[in-house]
Amino acid sequence: MPRPPLAREKVLDAFEAILIDEGERAATLDATAKAAGVSKGGLLYHFHSKDDLEAGLVERLDHLTTLDLERMNAAEEGPVAYYVRTSVMEDDALDRALIATTRLAQGGSTRAADMLRETRRRWADTIRPHVRDTASLDLVMLVSDGLYFNNSLDVHGPERLVPRSDELADLIALVLRATA
Asked: Which residues bind DNA (predicted)?
């Protein structure tokens, strides 16, 4: 797959940042063009409407999820440990795409909500063969959700709300014992 043009990615980055920082209502075409440092015509060259911007962001999330699943399947620690460990938000591209897509879903975008459900389904499908039953799968998914949510409460504070290093390793070991 050829790399998208740099200007297109800058526009998507700007749209994503506005969604995260200010919400769906603030993410207008004009605001996105200004934040991206392109003319409105430059934005419209790549995205003909806000709906096209949303589709681009959803496509970005799909692509980043695919890359994450590849890393998950290749992880030496195994998919379950990888999934729990990477549920601690680190402000990477996948986190930003998830948050921005969530903002769209909260604003009523069916496409965004469908992609969030599909992303979660794909993660669950990858983890399922590595746990003993449905309750174990639910445990992994809910621990991951809890880590992700809890960390989002205070990502810049002096004390982290989510376990780090040894504490996270201990939590992963506990999840692995409970689901094997």
From this structure: 28-47
